[in-house]
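Forum: Protein Structure Q&A
Topic: Joint prediction for protein chains with partners

I've read a bunch of threads here and the consensus seems to be that you should model interacting components together rather than docking separate models afterwards. I'd like to see that in practice. Below is the full input, 450 residues plus whatever partners are listed. Could one of the regulars post the assembled result?
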Amino acid sequence: MTRFLLIALMLASPPGPGEDTVVVQSGETLEGVAQRVLGDPGATAELRALNRLPEGGRLRAGERLRVPGPERDVAKTAIAHAEAAVAKPEVEPKAKQKALDVLAKAKSAVRAAHYGEALDQAREAIHIVDASKTKFSVTVAEDGATRVSVSEGAPVVVEARGQAVPLGAGNSVHVAPGLAPGTEQPLLPAPVTREPGDGAVLHTGYTEGLIGPLAFNWSEVSGAERYVVLVTHDVEGKDVVAQHEVVKGPLVTALAIGRYFWRVSARGADGLPGKWSPAVAITVEAPPPKLEVGSPTWR
Amino acid sequence: MRVGAPIFLAVVASACASSCDRASEAAAPVMPPPPARRAILEQVSGDVRIKRSDGDEWLPVTPGIALSRDDKIRTAKSATALIRFDEGTELAIDGESMVSISDLPAEAPGKGGVTVLRGKVDAEVDRNRSAEFSVKTPAAIARASKEIVFQ
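Posted by a regular:
Agreed with the consensus. Here's the joint model:
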């Protein structure tokens, strides 16, 4: 008996780095252990792989099982981010299919308890579908309170008070001074631009070198407290001509003669930003000359 | 003797200086310093001012000036500025903001960062060229890396 126990101890490999062990309770099934320890009754395949348990084998009360460590959570988080990136409507079908194939491999690696491999594959899936640029904004209030929002690309890591959280595209997080990052919130949707439309040529009255009044209007966004309207010289929105903040549309303003792009974004409570509408190209021209007809004298 | 001693010492010193220099050159080859890294203030609209790391005054800026570590940029209401880092990262600064160039290490090309003391910035990081770009604030650090981190 003693010799049998010694052989069993020699065969049992110690938990890997970051792994832990649990003791099977009386009458507990593998699903029960997966639910109790991981909160996921579907994780039986992982426990089977980690402990080299045969399919359909029964557990004994008092048996010690290896359970995954924090690397499982990291891999699952990465897969969730990759799934969100792949699900974006702007992803090309070819890239989407390639990324979905890689994601399927990542999920299979999780089932085999190969969490490091799953993490690498989730990263690869994000690289396949994401633009090579990461766009994010950071707003700092007078008291130092910070909001970070990611509009495009790979997740941005937000660190505060020793805690680091990945923030995916389309989301925002608020960090109060002296506290850890708050809960992730989705960005407000982009308003739909109404007028002036794409390619519109505007030429109303001419006042002090500017053409106006010009009215800009858009659809309202639920949860918006105000709107930011940006007028730029370039389609990327970097060469700013004017930036206006209004509680609601329409915005009435005036512009010099020229070609512009305008876009609008909602702002919610606590500075929660929204996505920008696509840029709309407009041209502002001088008003047509007025024909003034006097009283001609005929001879 | 009084005259000869200083001459002897001078000869020994000059001989040592030339031979010691040659010895140190042979032992440790002189490495060229890493190229200075820069960020350029590309676009400016409205009242935008700069306080150089070695200065005390807030001076008006002109587009195209090079920024160095610890330089500070301040924008007035409705003013905007655009900084381009040499690894391709673009940083748009909104009105009523104050930003300091905090991280521009010569020994780590591809890394860069700013500190935002107040206001708003929009960063566009080219993941193919930038190893890491960080935005520090009084409450947090936001980091966009080439390597995607999930923990």
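Chain A touches chain B through 49 residues (CB under 8 Å).
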